[in-house]
């Protein structure tokens, strides 16, 4: 049964240094507030998992909180590169990170396997590309037809964190709009946190609503605006201008650092010496 | 240049978008990412094919955005879609089984077999440029019936050998650049059309391999007044 | 793109003798009208596929239209046996039928494989039971962990038929309430028919609504009350009394035959001589 | 019989339902089919555990039916559920991974290891009685943490050897009959409780194998007035 706590407490109780953490959200409902809280608490050596790392992971990688990134698309959608991600991969700044990359279909099925508590899922993909040789997939033959397909291993994050529009007092959650892989991420994880725009007296199911019952969630924390500059459909707007501005902020290491320091997001990563 | 009797100036990029939109005439559904592919598909809905079903990998099927979306997850896509599905459902029930007919894809590198690279420039472990990665492209390119690639015509993009093969090219039917149109003939991308005012030699110069040229290269029809007006109205929204 | 036609035409255009046909509906939205139309048109030698055969398949088996049944639970839910199904299996009346049976989880995953156009799906199940030896599943080893799991083969019906609450003029369909495996059944089939309670000007997405776009459906036919004695949530009520009455009607061959004849559902099966 | 100081007559079936309901005290969620299991779980919500989450295999999670449903697909289940999911999601995300804590199952045959038969009586190819088949039971019985079997105590049901092993018994913690309660001890169902007024000998007589009996067999607590009143009110709705 989900406990309703502050965001600070939710993160403190669930995320430890070295954990594998999935802060999911497919362009919509990205849990920025939770990611920032995690940086403020100084978590480090994280394995960050996410289909679309986006600006939040660019920030987390940029301050050096990640030792490893598992992902399928590391871009600033519609704008261009994630410069902090690139700087880490291309130049090892502020530290080198290991990457494990997949296709979207691969990552999605890895979450499905995790949510299903199966060790793998089967799909068509990877074969005939260079991805297969550079990531963790295996060929598997269909026992009926002999066709060779691809097995992708389950994702089982230590912690999954997602953002949603609302929760009730028992921690039942409803999100709507683009649902991404949030449900799968929560079900696949050992521990889970859901931040929400608002607490409501009663969840009223709505069109396109995805309800996650409180009894499969560990902590729910209120965090109004908690997905900005991403958005929560019907409540906040995507700040497309900020996505464009981030390109300039993140291109420059000093400007990036200043931006993060101003918001108390730098010192927590514990890499002040390494990076300066 | 003349189009429908009028003189209209247009950029290579505009023509590229307009030519891409024309590939959607008579098609049922199209998978699109952001940027020029999205603009082209919206233009096709405005001018050629109002019933065209737009599918974005964010899970929005039948989206009808009024403005060109910045991201594939813009709120307007979910609000106007016929249905919105999870990412696993999108790939497992819609993309993989070929429910979506045409896909528009872009890439940083394209090879003569229309294979695509969107992963790295340089060595994988020590890349010169780390690109965003695969995203949905590999399974989209093998799931959809036809793939249309939209890319800038340059020797940096059209390379004899990819630094990384992210996406297979065998379902690609058309590559549309700002200079012309390439089509696979006997398995190799071949120049089949040039845009008005472009020479075959220019296209060859901007290709990183010895580009084959079809026996009778067509010239793309110039934008009609309707196409150009609609496109400009669309991007100004 | 779905064509809006009469039920008669929809069935005539899609179902042929000998086809594998899935009339799906998990206790809710069972396509009775379509199944009855199929009997009126005299279709025979069918492979009937369905998780929960229910009264409709009891009727279809009882008139001899099926040569084979693929299923996971052949009971009258809350009441007891399907007597026509039992009579066919136990006594070969009015004809013997072949059965292939699975668990619900197995059938559901077989539909998932079909909808995904994959040759199989992987699950935990069947091992350690007698089902494994009596049906069509195969062991499969996880290429990452070595764990032995079970592969179930894809279901790809020639025709899938489902019932829904509403469609618009372009054949886009919406159903709500218990969704069963209807979406999967439609996506897995070579041809598909959806019967609906009503045609609406515009589909307005609603809470719990499952929308199936018209361009993956072949035919849509209006059939108000078309799932009775099952029901369409919000429009018709489940006729629980009839489910109880069916027990007595179906226990007796003659009474069953009379009931079917009265409704024009007997002669079509073409087994009048065999059965009498 | 006395319960809470009152004299109340009750049937073996009523007691069976009441004893089953008690197994849900302190539990989070319960998977139920129709019939007595459904009645027992609704009774548990009324009397013992108002927060108990009821899960039906039709896809309704957190259903709060007022009346005992005839089928697992009654409209009231969907209308009152916290969420309604597809059948594939039910088995893949909820049952298989063990998100549901307790399962109530029935069966036509139960063997000493609590394996269940709901497929056929007699030979599989030429059955004496064709039963409905597996349904959700096999994966429910291996997915949920604990399985409670509810079955009538007779030698037809409690058999030394199943005609068909539909469902594995290793997660069964309790078998509740109209005569008493069996619990696996060292892997074999053992009589651990008898209902008031029943003798150990009666239970042994109605079991198709030489039933082991626990050293100190308990007597099930008689229905309290609250339990009995609630049960009767429930079934009269």
Q: What general form of chain B does the structure show?
A: globular
CATH domain topology of chain B: Glutaconate Coenzyme A-transferase
CA radius of gyration of chain B: 17 Å
Number of strands of chain A: 15
CATH-assigned homologous superfamily of chain B: Glutaconate Coenzyme A-transferase
Q: What does the radius of gyration of chain A come to?
A: 18 Å
Q: Runs of chain A with pLDDT <50, length 5+?
A: none
Query: DSSP helix count of chain B?
Result: 7
CATH top level class name of the largest domain in chain A: Alpha Beta
- Class from helix and strand fractions of chain A: alpha/beta
Oligomer: heterotetramer
Cα distance, first to last residue of chain B?
26 Å
Second-tier CATH architecture of chain B: 3-Layer(aba) Sandwich
Spatial gap, N to C terminus of chain A: 44 Å
- What class, by secondary structure content of chain B? alpha/beta
Number of domains of chain A: 2
Largest sheet geometry of chain A: 10 strands, mixed
Question: What attributes characterize this protein structure?
Answer:
heterotetramer, A: 276 residues, alpha/beta, Glutaconate Coenzyme A-transferase, 2 domains, ten-stranded mixed β-sheet, 10 helices, 15 strands, 30% helix, 24% strand, B: 237 residues, eight-stranded mixed β-sheet, 16 strands, 25% strand, globular
Can you walk through the features of this model?
The complex is a heterotetramer, with 2 copies of chain A (276 residues) and 2 copies of chain B (237 residues). With 276 residues, chain A is an alpha/beta fold. Chain A is built from 10 helices and 15 strands. Chain A folds into 2 domains: 3-105 and 155-262, Glutaconate Coenzyme A-transferase; 120-153, no CATH class. Chain A has helices spanning 7-14, 32-40, 54-62, 83-91, 104-115, 131-134, 182-188, 240-251, 253-262, 272-275, and strands spanning 3-5, 20-23, 46-49, 66-71, 75-76, 80-81, 98-101, 120-123, 138-141, 148-153, 159-167, 173-175, 191-199, 210-212, 219-222. In chain A, the strands form 3 sheets. In chain A, strands 1, 2, 3, 4, 7, 11, 12, 13, 14 and 15 form a 10-stranded mixed sheet that branches. A 3-stranded antiparallel sheet of chain A has the order 8-10-9, covered by helices on one side. In chain A, strands 5-6 form a two-stranded antiparallel ribbon. The model of chain A has no long low-confidence stretch (mean pLDDT 95). Chain B is an alpha/beta fold. Chain B has one domain (12-236): Glutaconate Coenzyme A-transferase, CATH 3.40.1080.10. Chain B is 27% helix and 25% strand. Chain B is built from 7 helices and 16 strands. Chain B has helices at 12-22, 36-47, 75-80, 87-95, 137-143, 200-205, 225-236; strands at residues 2-3, 6-7, 29-31, 53-55, 60-61, 83-84, 102-105, 109-110, 116-117, 120-122, 127-130, 146-150, 172-176, 180-185, 188-194, 212-219. In chain B, the strands form 5 sheets. Chain B has an 8-stranded mixed sheet with strand order 4-3-7-12-13-14-15-16, with helices on both faces. A two-stranded antiparallel ribbon of chain B has the order 1-2. The two termini of chain B are 26 Å apart. The interface between A and B is large, with 53 and 48 residues.
């Amino acid at each position: 049964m989900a406990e309703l706590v502050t965001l600070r407490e939710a993160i403190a109780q669930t995320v430890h240094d070295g954990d594998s953490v999935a802060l999911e959200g497919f362009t919509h409902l990205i849990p920025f507030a939770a990611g920032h809280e995690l940086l403020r608490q100084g978590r480090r050596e994280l394995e960050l998992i996410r289909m679309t790392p986006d600006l939040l992971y660019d920030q987390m990688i940029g301050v050096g909180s990640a030792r490893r990134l598992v992902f399928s698309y590391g871009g600033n959608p519609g704008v261009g590169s994630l410069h902090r991600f690139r700087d880490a991969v291309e130049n090892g700044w502020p530290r080198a990170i290991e990457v494990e990359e997949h296709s979207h279909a691969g990552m999605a099925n890895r979450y499905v396997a995790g949510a299903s508590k199966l060790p793998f899922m089967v799909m068509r993909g990877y074969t005939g590309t260079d991805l297969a040789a550079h990531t963790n997939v295996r060929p598997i033959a269909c026992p009926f037809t002999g066709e060779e397909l691809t097995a992708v291993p389950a994702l089982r994050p230590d912690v999954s964190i997602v953002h949603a529009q609302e929760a009730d007092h028992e921690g039942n959650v409803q999100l709507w709009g683009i649902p991404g892989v949030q449900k799968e991420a929560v079900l696949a994880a050992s521990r889970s946190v859901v931040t929400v725009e608002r607490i409501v007296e009663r969840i009223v199911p709505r069109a396109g609503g995805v309800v996650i019952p409180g009894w499969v969630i560990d902590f729910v924390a209120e965090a109004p605006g908690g997905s900005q500059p991403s958005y929560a459909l019907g409540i906040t707007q995507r700040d497309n201008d900020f996505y464009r501005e981030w390109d300039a902020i993140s291109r420059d290491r000093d400007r990036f650092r200043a931006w993060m320091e101003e918001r108390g997001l730098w010192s927590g990563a514990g890499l002040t010496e390494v990076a300066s | 240049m003349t189009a429908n009797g009028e003189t209209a100036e247009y950029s290579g990029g505009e023509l590229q978008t307009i030519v891409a939109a024309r590939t959607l005439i008579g098609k049922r559904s199209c998978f699109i990412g952001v940027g020029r592919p999205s603009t082209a598909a919206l233009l096709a809905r405005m001018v050629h094919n109002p019933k065209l079903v737009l599918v974005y990998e964010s899970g929005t099927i039948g989206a009808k955005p009024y403005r060109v979306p910045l991201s594939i997850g813009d709120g307007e896509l979910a609000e106007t879609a016929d249905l919105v599905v999870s990412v696993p459902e999108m790939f497992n029930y819609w993309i993989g089984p070929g429910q979506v007919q045409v896909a528009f894809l872009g890439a940083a590198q394209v090879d003569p077999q229309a294979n695509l690279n969107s992963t790295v420039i340089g060595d994988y472990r020590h890349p010169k440029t780390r690109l965003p990665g695969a995203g949905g492209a590999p399974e989209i390119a093998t799931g959809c019936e036809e793939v249309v690639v939209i890319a800038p015509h340059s020797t940096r993009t059209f390379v004899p050998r990819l630094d990384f093969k992210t996406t297979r090219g065998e379902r690609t039917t058309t590559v549309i650049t700002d200079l012309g149109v390439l089509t696979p003939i006997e398995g190799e991308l071949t120049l089949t059309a040039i845009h008005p005012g472009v020479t075959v030699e220019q296209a060859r110069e901007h290709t990183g391999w010895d580009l084959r040229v079809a026996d009778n290269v067509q010239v793309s029809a110039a934008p009609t007044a309707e196409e150009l007006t609609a496109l400009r109205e669309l991007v100004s929204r």
